[in-house]
Amino acid sequence: MTRTKWVAAAALGALLMAGQAVAADKKVVAVSIPAADHGWTAGVVYHAQAAAKEINAAFPDVEVIVKTSPSATAQVSALEDLSAGRKLDALVILPHTSEELTMPVKAVKDGGAFITVVDRGLNDPAIQDLYVAGDNIAVGKNTAKFLVDKLGGKGNLVVLRGIPTVIDDERIKGFQDGIAGTDLKILDIQYANWNSDEAFKLMQDYLAKYPQIDAVWANDDDMLLGVLEAIKESGRTDIKFALGGNGMKEIVKKVIDGDAVTPVETPYPPSMIKTAIYMTVANLVGQAPVRGNVKLDAPLITQANAAEFYFPDSPF
């Protein structure tokens, strides 16, 4: 059992043991997440809805409400709608962007809600009571270490960023720290917004601009799909590695199959939202307070251990 599944199972077990030992007034937990605009967020929506269904069935005095939003602006409006006319006892939020959601979440906090932030941290960490995320620095650093080793510490790289968030900054920092002191050179680094189509276009630009690219790092697997398609269409053979991150099942399958260009991966499970919801509800039903930072590991996925991270029936 992976660490994420174990934590989620333990949290759910604690909730079930609490039985009906809750207050007479129904506790309201709002869950605000991005809409399923790419594979990883599809997984987030899937696991959030599963958690809400399980908790609402087990605890009649707890109501978990899941609201998805297609943009940061829409998410701000969703927070206003969720808190209008009712008291929120807790908010679990995966922000679209850190900057735009920080103050709206603070307003909910000021209303007395317990705040759990997942994945994309706020610009002011003091607002959150609980933070659940993967180890984004390790996602970048472990990928970088692999490239340093396989390329002998020298070569030309291009990098695709996600969207301006704390986690994107952390992944880039980890990667840059990982290649520091080597002769690996980042020729270009631009945002592709964790979007396959945008990554395809950006990779086409990179291919047209740079005649020699030894490796590509797209810091998210949805972008990696676009990168791989652009490389395939170009017919270029100079690119030795194209790597991503997040543990998408299609990419893990490549690792299992021994793909030469994408032989490794790093996990960043969308099921972390489910863990966060369970842990948040535990604070409302008489369990010991759960506060602070929960960071999930990001070990390098290789052909030797890839089966442990492969879930073909999951949405991601």
UniProtKB/TrEMBL annotation:
<protein>
    <submittedName>
        <fullName>Ribose transport system substrate-binding protein</fullName>
    </submittedName>
</protein>
<keyword id="KW-0732">Signal</keyword>
<feature type="domain" description="Periplasmic binding protein">
    <location>
        <begin position="29"/>
        <end position="287"/>
    </location>
</feature>
<dbReference type="GO" id="GO:0030246">
    <property type="term" value="F:carbohydrate binding"/>
</dbReference>
<dbReference type="InterPro" id="IPR025997">
    <property type="entry name" value="SBP_2_dom"/>
</dbReference>
<dbReference type="Pfam" id="PF13407">
    <property type="entry name" value="Peripla_BP_4"/>
</dbReference>
<comment type="similarity">
    <text>Belongs to the bacterial solute-binding protein 2 family.</text>
</comment>
<dbReference type="InterPro" id="IPR028082">
    <property type="entry name" value="Peripla_BP_I"/>
</dbReference>
<feature type="signal peptide">
    <location>
        <begin position="1"/>
        <end position="23"/>
    </location>
</feature>
<dbReference type="GO" id="GO:0030313">
    <property type="term" value="C:cell envelope"/>
</dbReference>
